[in-house]
Amino acid sequence: MKKSLFLVSILSLILSSHLLCQVNLPLTGRSLEGMFSRIRDNLSSEQKLRINDSIQTLVDKYAKSDSVFKYKFNNLRFLGQIISPDSLVKIITWNLILESGDNSYYCYFIRKGKENSSNDVYKLSGLYSEKAIRSDTLYSDSNWYGALYYDIRPFKVAGPDQGYVILGIDYGNSFVTRKIIDILTFGPDHNLIFGKKCFVDGKVLRQRVVFEYSTKVVMSLRFVNDKSIVFDHLSPSTPEFRDNHQFWGPDFSFDSYNFENGFWKLKSDVDVRIERNK
Q1: Residue 87 belongs to what domain range?
Q2: Does residue 32 fall inside a structural domain?
Q3: Angstrom distance (rounded) from CA 224 to CA 218
Q4: CA–CA separation, 174 vs 171, rounded Å?
Q5: Radius of gyration of the chain (CA)
Q6: Is residue 29 part of a domain?
Q7: To 10 degrees, the CA torsion angle through 268, 272, 276, 278?
Q8: CA 192, 195, 200 angle in degrees (round to 5)?
Q9: Which residue has the higher pLDDT, 9 or 218?
Q10: Number of structural domains found in the chain
């Protein structure tokens, strides 16, 4: 009898803790909203880092909770939250700019576990570097370049695993912004792999595509459907700035990458209306 009562008490505590976590998610969202509002104020780097530590603590608990795929925080302008259309991967990102101008990125990749298995949670951080993000190499969670991701789509890669195309932005410095088309896969040891040789530009095969352009302009880069990514064609304002991307911007034409036979192939000067209807 005592053993039964003990088991019931333990079960009640577990259920109560689970329910408390569920009830507190809106409160967590309001706390994060206040923290992100404060961190954008004119504070010292030390103050911002302390607030960011608190943000990481709350996001970490959320990312590891059973509710991460069911619950989305509302009204959090500075916290990116996207889920893949197959509902198997969630990405949470934000960045922090200090007084020195250093721009740090924080990211959680959550991969839904199989039945009766816990989710895989990957915690990444990266610091903006003046060095270009390379298009000829693989990256991992240990040397991640840092970006804010705003869209993700699954696509079939060779082998049994599912691949994902991810679109990201790196605000870089006060002169140059970067946008990235990358490939996310999961290795045999459940490790993250960024990049895959499947972007075809003429005779060149790339692991990812990276655009660099002036912070004074806006570049469009988006999916029009699961097999087509359309973007502004970039060019220098004058030929003399061909090698200086802080003077690059859209020239009112569009290009696209289209998924064909396992590869994303570049197509220049496309009609966006036609691409959208494919």
Answers
A1: 79-276
A2: no
A3: 18
A4: 8
A5: 21
A6: no
A7: -40
A8: 160
A9: 218
A10: 1
The contacts of residue 206 (CB under 8 Å, 6+ apart) are 135, 136, 197, 199, 200
- Integer CA distances (angstroms), 26 to 30, 45, 64, 158, in order: 6, 28, 16, 41
Task: Count other C-beta atoms under 10 Å from residue 6's C-beta.
Answer: 10
Say if residues 100 and 94 touch (Cβ distance below 8 Å): no
Q: Which residues contact 110 (CB under 8 A, 6 or more apart)?
A: 63, 68, 69, 89, 90, 91, 92, 119, 120, 121, 122
- In this predicted model, what pLDDT tens digit does every residue of 213-264 receive, in sequence order? 999 999 999 999 999 999 999 999 989 988 899 999 999 999 999 999 889 9
What distance in Å separates the CA atoms of residue 118 and residue 65, rounded to the nearest whole number?
A: 10
Give me the phi and psi of 148, to 5 degrees please.
Answer: -105, 120
Q: Report d(CA 26, CA 20) in Å as an integer.
A: 11
- Spatial CB neighbours of 211, under 8 Å, sequence gap ≥ 6: 178, 179, 180, 219, 221, 231, 234
Nearest-angstrom CA–CA distance, 102 and 106: 13
Sheet containing 103-111: order of strands: 80-83, 89-97, 103-111, 120-127
Q: Would residue 47 count as lying in a domain? A: no
- Asked, for residue 42, whether it belongs to a domain, the answer is no
Cα–Cα distance for residue pair 142/125, rounded to 1 Å: 9
Distances (CA, A) of 27 to 20, 21, 23, 36, 48: 11, 10, 8, 14, 21
Three-state secondary structure readout of 133-190: CCCCCCECCCCCCCCEEEEEEEEECCCCCEEEEEEEEECCCCCEEEEEEEEEEECCCC
Q: In what order do the strands lie in the sheet with 248-260?
A: 204-206, 199-201, 263-267, 248-260, 228-236, 221-225
| Residue 137: both structure tokens together | 């190499």
Which helix (H) or strand (E) segment holds residue 101: the answer is none
State the pTM of this model.
0.88
The CA-based angle 188-189-195, given to 5 degrees, is: 65
